[in-house]
Amino acid sequence: MTVALVLAALLAVACVVAVALPFLREPVARLDAISEPDAIGRRQLDLAERRDRALAALKELEFDHRTGKVSDEDYRSLVGPLRREAAEALRGLEPRAAVSDAGAATPAARGRPTE
Amino acid sequence: MPELGRAALVVSLGLIVYALLAGAGAAATRRRRLAVSAQNALIAAFGSTLVACVVLAVALVRHDFALTYVADHTSRALPTVYTLSAFWGGQEGSLLLWLLVLTGYGVLAVWLNRKRARDLVVWVVPVIAGVATFFSLLLVAVASPFKTAPAPLDGAGLNPSLQNPYMVAHPPLLYLGYVGLTVPFAFAMGALLSGRADERWIVATRRWTLVAWTALGIGQLLGAHWAYEEVGWGGYYAWDPVENAALMPWLAATAYLHSVMIQEKRGMLKVWNVVLVSLAFCLSIFGTFLTRSGVISSIHSFTQSSIGPWFLGFICAVTTFAVGLILFRLPLLRARTRLESLVSREATFLYNNLLLVALCLTILWGVAWPILTEAVRGEARVVGRPYYDFFLRAFGLPLLLLMGIGPLIAWRRASIRGLGKTFAGPALVTAVVGVALLVLGAGSSTPGLVAYTFSAFVLATILLEFARGTRARHALSSESWPAAFSSLIARNRRRYGGYVVHAAVVLLAIGVAGSSAYQHITDRKLAPGQSLAVGGYTLTYRKLEETKRANANEIRAVLDVRRGGDSLGTIKAGKNAYSAPAGQVSNEVGIRTNYLTGEDLFVIAEQVDEDGTVYFRVFVKPLVNLIWLAGFVFVLGSLIALWPDAREERRLALRYREAGVSMTAR
User: Fold this and answer.
1) Of the four listed, B311, B320, B590, B608, which is most buried by Cβ atoms within 10 Å?
2) Are residues B425 and B536 in the same domain?
3) CB of B47 less than 8 A from some CB of A
4) Are B653 and B664 in contact (CB under 8 A)?
5) Cβ contacts (< 8 Å) between A63 and chain B: which residues?
6) Measured between beta carbons, which residues in chain B are less than 8 angstroms from residue A4?
């Protein structure tokens, strides 16, 4: 009984320490905000998703065409819009480089703290 | 040391409640240290629950009958492996296992995504903690496995049906599946709560869903094999409520695994995917409720308890929360693209989804019917096997056909002329197989004939896909044929792993159709020396044998088996009478497998009389072993699909780097 209670007390103390650890390590945090993508980051993420989707679809279309699953006629009608989608997403992503460069020079320019 | 077990559970509850409250507070106020503290609480809760599990396992092995749970579910004569499996043989132990797996999964999910989806994870922690709070509360306040009483000299023993090797693995696998569905649900809710409706929650959880889905599928197959060998009624699936309880979330997860591809490829069905993930999770809780509450009579339910209302309340709360959140975030989930054609890959996935969900809801209606009728009329009415069989054929056969059609159609749209060319080969194979089956006499069962013909179509399309793909890779890269085949799979593991899983479903369909539509059954009372004939076999009853084991008295009827004049040896069937639990008797069936044809000769000794006569029921089940073979193929396909894909990892890492999101991809 006593051993069990001692072990239980040790377990409880260890758990409390684990929970309190972030505050024990950093009693006063310089930055205590969770980093998250800002509005530009979210838009870039959306564009990157669209670009990847279009590129993956193009790759799959090429392969299906090569295996004979997609006829020449279907291939011609599908490939154009997919290329346009990929190109649009890529164009949207291009200005990011400039924004990123500026952001790298001045981290606060992103509007959200980083870790 | 029951005190340590109890204390560990109380500590777990405290930590989980803290993870819920602090996690929600941190996510709402975006406070980093508080969020890490909540994550640490979840990790510590896992550790504390593990301590409670170790205490219970030690008590089981040491036969500490002062613990009511140990006394109620084990005895001194019980073999050690079943003494340990008694951990999940009863309600309290099962709930403890639920909590352990849930907190373990939660820790793993948080750790794996700590960098790649931090802004989602802060919301995932309180959602997982919310679910864990329910189970932790049950364990502390309602169904503690550490209740004590004056120790009896010996325990009551484990239910004889649970003393089977399949029962050692079947429940934990089901739990891995049920609980695993919590993680995608938590990420989906996290995405909605945080307002981040991009694909990251899908990227973070698709492997989790696949793992949970695989575990649930294998768990069900093991359960079916257990029922086949142990319950001794001559079948493997009886549409029992508890069996259905595992099938429903599996069907919903199957639908999700298909529809999620539409979101990834086309950016469509965002609302539908969140609904499916929530449905699968709610059904997994409903399944646990059915198994654990004893609300419905079932051969698989070994518990009668009062926790039913708690579960119902929790299911209502979760459903309300999920529906409310989805409605609140509807504007975020609007798709930009639309279905271009009703003849396209995404359209076949959509049809597949509608059929899967229709089958799932039909089964749900059948399971809920006795509860509803009892609540309204005061008398429970059970839906019978014909109801389920009808809908299995109505929805299952078109699903089987769609498994063959889908891979042949391209994404977005396909012209009729192009389709004609693609379908010509598989259609020809199907027609030839259909005619051959008719000639061989398979026309005696129309559903069986249709299932076989559709299966031939699906197999033909799968083989065609592998053959065409390998040829294209061989032509593209000048690799050897085996290298081209290997690189084909490595370059698109999900697609080709999926095809292997489809092959497993075909084997399952052939096995089910063969063993149900074309089986032979006979029953007769025989005295020693008498014979019966069934499905080409002749069985002659020779004698009774009796053996005394540590915890059971075994009686076996010995029968000689002959086929076409050839002796095939003997087969034994009988019963075990257990000393603990006293008076319990189990059916021990005799099975003779023909590994070449996949056929089983299945003998049940229904009644053994004192004068030595035995009432036998004998089945001949063609192709039944394909069902178990399907399990191995299913695991292989799942492993291929689950295997990490370095190319995809790099692509996702690049995507997140370019987007400036501070995370690495997976």
Assistant:
1) B590
2) no
3) yes
4) yes
5) 469, 472
6) 1-4, 7
The tens digit of pLDDT for each residue in A28-63 reads: 877 888 877 777 888 888 888 888 888 988 998 998
| B482 upstream amide cis, omega within 30 of 0 | no
Contact A48 B422 (CB under 8 A): no
Residue B372 sits in the same domain as residue B348:
yes
- Flag whether B293 is in a domain: yes
Residues B152, B210 within the same domain: no
Low-confidence stretches of chain B (pLDDT < 50) are: 302, 663-666
CB proximity list for B30: less than 8 A, separation 6 or greater:
A33, A34, A36, B122
Instruction: Give the C-alpha distances (Å, rounded to integers) separating B95 from A56, B6, B54, B101, B182.
Output: 44, 14, 14, 10, 15
Cβ of A22 within 8 Å of Cβ of B30? The answer is no
pTM greater than 0.80 (yes/no): yes
Statement to judge: residues B288 and B364 lie in one domain: yes
Is residue B139 domain-shared with residue B189, that is, in the same domain? no
Q: Select from B386, B401, B435 the last residue of a domain.
A: B386
Q: How far apart are CA B313 and CA B191, in angstroms?
A: 25
Most B CBs within 10 A among A34, A50, A101, hence the mutation to make, goes to: A34
Side by side, the strands of the sheet bearing B585-588 are: B531-534, B537-548, B552-563, B566-578, B585-588
Measure CB to CB from residue A57 to each of B36, B40, B411 and give the nearest one: B411
ipTM of the complex: 0.77
Answer whether B119 sits within 8 Å of A35, measured CB to CB. yes
Tell me: pLDDT of A109 over 60: no
Instruction: Give every CB contact of residue B294 below 8 A, 6+ residues apart in sequence.
Output: B301, B303, B304, B305, B308
Query: Does B410 fall in a domain?
Result: no
Q: Are B71 and B149 in contact (CB under 8 A)?
A: yes
Q: Pick from B157, B178, B211: which residue ends a domain? A: B157
Instruction: Express each pLDDT in B569-607 by its tens digit.
Output: 999 999 988 876 677 888 889 999 999 999 999 999 999
C-alpha B628/C-alpha B225 separation (Å) is 8
Please name the amino acid found at residue B136.
Answer: S
Give chain A's mean pLDDT: 79
B389 interfaces chain A, CB cutoff of 8 Å: no
C-alpha span between B655 and A52 (Å, rounded): 8
Mark whether B144 and B180 lie in a shared domain: no
Looking at residue B305, its pLDDT comes to: 64
Residue with tokens 């279309």: A61
CA distance B262 to A81: 18
Which of B413, B471, B660 shows the shortest C-beta gap to A41? B660
The boundaries of the domain holding residue B69 are 1-157
Band (pLDDT 50/70/90 cuts) for residue A1 is: low
- The four Cα atoms B199, B204, B208, B210 give a dihedral, to 10 degrees, of 40
B65 and B199 belong to one structural domain: no
Residue B593 backbone phi and psi in degrees, to 5: -100, 135
Residue from B136, B178, B146, B124 nearest B55 by CA: B146
* Number of domains into which chain B is organized: 4
CA distances from B331 to B185, B271, B334, B620 (A): 20, 10, 6, 57
State whether residue B344 is helix, strand or coil: coil
> Is position B408 within any domain?
no
Mutate which of A7, A10, A19 to test chain B, going by most B C-beta atoms within 10 A?
A: A19
Given a contact cutoff of 8 angstroms between Cβ atoms, the answer to whether B438 and B384 are in contact is no
B664: three-class secondary structure by DSSP = coil
Q: Which residue has the tokens 């399971």?
A: B367
Pair B298, B167 in one domain: yes
How many inter-chain contacts (A to B, CB under 8 Å) are there?
A: 171
On whether residue B406 sits in a domain, the answer given is no
Return the DSSP state at B160.
G
pLDDT score recorded for residue B205: 83
